[in-house]
Amino acid sequence: MLHSKAKSSPTTDENVEMIEIYASSNFAEMEFLTDMFDEESIGYLTREMEMSMMPVHVGGHDEVRLAVEAGRVEQARGLIQQAIVDEAIPGDGHFIEHEE
């Protein structure tokens, strides 16, 4: 069973569609990305997916999912990719692909 906690950026408009683009269990990596999105004025939403304390699963790790404003998906993906190339983040996470 998963529990989730959500946090949004100060610039997020609740009327704008948000699309999940990246997920990672490295919380420092996500902190860097949300700071970067704040600097770029990209609205985001993070959802922390925590595994239940009940021993009903084997393995699994807590994960944070990062969603951005629908109109800024490509820009946000590019910034994440550049941060990985520049080794600003380790790239421990993975991109979430969506059908268009």
Automatic annotation (TrEMBL):
Record-annotated DUF2007 domain positions: 18-83
A Pfam family this chain is assigned to: DUF2007
SUPFAM superfamilies, A to Z: GlnB-like
Origin: domain of life: Bacteria
Family annotation (InterPro entries): DUF2007, N-reg_PII-like_a/b
Gene3D superfamilies for the chain: UreE, C-terminal domain
Name this polypeptide is given: DUF2007 domain-containing protein
Organism the protein comes from: Lujinxingia litoralis
Native organism taxonomy: Bacteria, Deltaproteobacteria, Bradymonadales, Lujinxingiaceae, Lujinxingia
